[in-house]
Amino acid sequence: MQKDQLFTRRRMLLAGAAALGTAGTAGIVLAAGGEETAGTAVAPVPGPQARQALKPSAFRLQPFTGYGPPRTAPRKLKVRRKPILEISGRGRRMMLTFDDGPNPAYTPHILDTLAKYDVRAMFFVCGECVADNRELLARMADEGHVVGNHTWTHPLLTTLRRKEIRSEMERTSDIIEDTYGERPQWFRAPYGAWNRAAFQLGAEMGMEPMAWTVDTTDWMEPGTGTIIDQVESGAAPGVVVLSHDAGGDRSQTVRALREWLPYLIDSGYHLTVPPRRV
């Protein structure tokens, strides 16, 4: 609970930090099955790599220590100046993302609801939380969800030196690979506060920057009804939804998801994840 309380205090103090790193236009990523393109953002706000689920046996073969085969260097990407805010593609496609976990009190309930409706989502995880909850990343791998890098300790990157940012990102990518089975291909800056070093280092590590277009505001614990309204009123083709499975009391998030997810499905939306790059 101390860790969750710390996250909550950070968010209340830094709620406006998202404006530091993004404004204006940004990229669009095509949902699974297409090519990435550039385009105009739905909204001037900051904000998952599609993959087949690893077989359970494949996960169990992944080492928790350094005794496995050497890691391969990620393919370097073009350095972006703004994060990706939305997805494109045919039909009514949306993307669900969850930040700050995994957390044993809330993440399993979110995974249960996603499984009930056969939906894949994106989880941007913090390395220190992964270290305490590896089995939840194993479940994400088994169930076909995409895992992205959200740093090790959830710091405000704009206050760190470049080598500190690199450490936060590299340590998290390493533990994701050891636990999930693959290195992450997506990165999200804590608080949506991006800077040039984050874009450059992410590209060096083979990660695209992913932001969001609809903030559920669940980090403020505004009430289950408010979270539901935020998603349902903001639903539109291409939208990336931001929610949280850690960083505070996320019981409202869990309850709200059980309401707005079937609503989106009944409204004809297809919940998807980006394609895996090879």
Automatic annotation (TrEMBL):
Pfam families: Polysacc_deac_1
Alphabetical keyword list: Hydrolase, Metal-binding, Signal
Source organism superkingdom: Bacteria
Record domain NodB homology: where: 92-272
InterPro entries membership: Glyco_hydro/deAcase_b/a-brl, NODB_dom, Polysacc_deacetylase_ArnD, TAT_signal
Signal peptide: 1-31
Keyword hit for Hydrolase: yes
Name used for this protein in its record: Polysaccharide deacetylase family protein
Organism whose genome encodes this protein: Streptomyces musisoli
